[in-house]
Amino acid sequence: MISVRGVSKSFGSQVVLSRLNLEVEQGRTTTIVGPSGAGKSVLLKLIMGILSADEGEIDVCGYSVTNASSEAEKNQIRENLGVLFQSAALFDSLTVYDNIAFPLTQCKLQSREQAHERVVSLARSLSLVKYLNKLPQEVSIGIRKRVGLARALAVEPKVLLFDEPNTGLDPLVGQEVYDLIAESQKNQGFTGVVISHELPEVFQVSDRVVMLLRGKIIMEGTPDDFLSTDNPEVVQFLHGYVDGPIRIQ
Ligand SMILES: Nc1ncnc2c1ncn2[C@@H]1O[C@H](COP(=O)(O)OP(=O)(O)OP(=O)(O)O)[C@@H](O)[C@H]1O
Ligand SMILES: [Mg+2]
Q1: Contact present, 137 and 92 (Cβ < 8 Å)
Q2: Full residue range of the structural domain in which residue 197 is found
Q3: How many angstroms separate the CA atoms of 125 and 64, rounded?
Q4: pLDDT tens-digit map of 158-210
Q5: Among all ligands shown, which has an atom nearest to the Cα of 34?
Q6: How far is the centre of ligand 1, averaged over its atoms, from the C-alpha of 86 (Å)?
Q7: What are the DSSP calls for 180-247, one per residue?
Q8: Tally of domains in the chain
């Protein structure tokens, strides 16, 4: 579904990713974990074609992101990708309804009536009906997350990317976001990529976990593999120990 092969990315002299390989399987959720600055968001931006790799290849749903040269080609690939950014990134001047409708009206794949039906059906399944006429600042952060998820789901993407879906949320709302991810995954069957610091909580929505460190994937496995490993770097990260092989930046 997503294939990353031998991808490197540097900013000036800073090597962020170094010949990285990653395969994301269809219909499952892969979680990318790693300390702050490890390059998780950079990897996500490379997959979306927002940044370009220095070397290597990335395919999404059979399309080559790395060879896509025109914006039209990149847009074709992005039609398969839904993204829920950190802080939900809603449009402040648009109502909840218009935020959810935005990708539908923008890509013009659907008529106004079809778009309306889709918005209402998403609002029903995510319990957003009573907020449709509100502006983002008039609703709680938990509701904003739900709106962000509804907007990401609107075009029925094959792949959904979540960049730290829970950062800044209290534990109850955070749990609600995980429940929403799990439930919409079950109903819509997308391939998920979740970036998170929240260990071990994020494991509940992970089929597969990869840990990024020093530009490489240092471990790949199931949540159980991570919980039972004796790899000192993984153990340090999982438990948040200050002392250990990973130097805090
Ligand atoms: N556009 C850019 N220009 C220069 N440096 C960048 C750029 N984007 C990212 N970086 C650098 O690349 C490194 C990795 O950044 P990235 O945002 O991917 O980290 P991250 O793993 O997502 O961290 P966090 O968990 O804090 O979000 C950082 O040192 C960052 O400063
Ligand atoms: Mg990040």
Answers
A1: yes
A2: 1-80+157-216+232-249
A3: 34
A4: 999 999 888 777 888 888 888 888 888 888 888 999 998 888 889 999 999 99
A5: 1
A6: 14
A7: HHHHHHHHH--EEEEE---TTGGGGG-SEEEEEETTEEEEEE-HHHHHH---HHHHHHHHT-SSSSSP
A8: 2
